[in-house]
Write a structure and sequence with these properties.
single chain, about 350 residues, alpha/beta, 11 helices, globular, disordered N terminus, binds nicotinamide-adenine-dinucleotide
Length: about 350
């Protein structure tokens, strides 16, 4: 275990050229804006297939944006110039992955391998956003836990295996000199996250604001630990300043203090937003179709000692996050188009209240 390091923010002496793939998405956009605000030169590459901010918004603050896939960008530019690449481009979400039948693993592994090779050739460090789904297990998970490969196949399993295989590919490139870290975030939430793709908190908040039923899948007894997106980006920034982070380590990044059941999340959302919505227990396959499957883990919680050892701490409480998501959706519509089958959950004619 590396010794604890102070969480250093980037300063004028540490200006970097940073590439953020998926930088128009939920996590990528917060990452790109943070590195940009710290005075770094930032390039975003995003295929705009599930973006939550527009290229115009990022260009307005001086971020360079290429609207294309990672594969096309790398094929066109040949070599990259960067000190750090944050690779966040990926199909994502329990329902979002259903839009990529039989292609998810190829998509994830192909893009990650290409990014890893480009970083190796350029001498750039790579922060790869993997997923806590790689574990395929129920319980409180640490980086020392061996993942389980389920016997049943589904888009969700393919996503998890794509992420796990990507980690293995990068570990192979590390033997040839790649400096990288793999982050396994646990249930990231925050303003701008879209409900499309199947994410629970923006769905609950938008339903509560519109006075519509809050749709809880199954009996709501599943437990999750919710991490604020700004806390995740704090970790990415801390890792960028740490030599230890790029020694091929995997890091769980989550907030155990924000653990709760999905039913409790629905109740807290309803109470905090003073909503008249009723809570309804529904079968997710009625909303997303028969290919939707629940995660392998009914209880997916995390040990985060390895991340804490870098000096990082998650700060934002679940109630604060629920309020922040509500503030966002009180005045804005969900940016993404309805490409998943969840119009049932929030019909287009119901715009969020106020
Ligand atoms: N949101 C979570 O709770 C969570 C949890 C664990 C891991 N992750 C991982 O974090 C990363 C970001 O997730 P997010 O929640 O911000 O999702 P998102 O859908 O909001 O963002 C992903 C972005 O990547 C872009 N993209 C997809 N494929 C691309 C490609 N081939 N080339 C270029 N751009 C591409 C999309 O247009 C989108 O803007 C993903 O790798 C995801 O697997 C997310």
């Amino acid at each position: 275990m590396p010794p604890p390091q102070r969480l250093t923010m980037l300063n004028d002496d540490a200006r970097m050229r940073v590439i953020v793939t998926g930088g128009l998405g939920f996590i990528g956009s917060v990452t790109a804006l943070r590195f940009n605000a710290a005075g770094n030169s930032v390039l975003v590459v995003d295929s705009v297939e599930s973006n939550v901010v527009s290229a115009i918004d990022l260009r307005a603050v001086g971020i360079e944006v290429i609207e294309d896939s990672v594969a096309n960008y790398l094929a066109a530019c040949g070599t990259i110039e960067a000190d750090l690449v944050v690779h966040a481009a990926s199909p994502v979400g329990a329902a979002g992955v259903l839009r990529h039948p039989f292609g998810i693993a190829e998509h994830i592994v192909g893009a990650t391998a290409a990014v890893g090779k480009a970083c190796l050739a350029a001498g750039a460090r790579l922060c790869h956003i993997s997923s806590s789904e790689v574990y395929g297990l129920d319980g409180v998970l640490s980086e020392r836990t061996s993942p389980r490969v389920p016997v049943e196949h589904s888009a969700r399993v393919e996503y998890a295996l794509g992420k796990l295989t990507s980690e293995a590919v990068l570990a192979g490139l590390a033997r040839r000199g790649l400096k990288h870290s793999c982050l396994r975030p646990f249930n990231v939430v925050g303003a701008r996250q879209s409900r499309f793709g199947g994410f629970v908190l923006p769905t609950f908040v938008q339903q509560a604001l519109a006075g519509l039923p809050i749709t809880v899948f199954s009996d709501g007894g599943q437990t999750r630990a919710f991490l604020d997106v700004e806390d995740l980006v704090d970790f990415i920034v801390a890792a960028a300043s740490s030599q230890h982070a790029f020694q091929s380590a995997c890091f769980n990044v989550g907030n155990p203090a924000n653990s709760c059941s999905i039913l409790e999340l629905a109740q807290r959302t309803r109470v905090l937003l003073c909503s008249s919505s009723q809570i309804e227990f529904v079968d997710a396959t009625e909303i997303y179709g028969p290919d939707y499957v629940e995660g392998a883990s009914r209880h997916k919680l995390c040990h985060v000692e390895r991340a804490l050892a870098l000096g990082w701490r998650p700060h934002r409480s679940l109630d604060e996050i629920i309020r922040a998501v509500a503030e966002h959706y009180r005045v804005r519509r969900d940016m993404r188009n309805s490409d998943a089958r969840d119009n049932h959950a929030l019909p287009a004619r119901h715009s969020p209240a106020r």
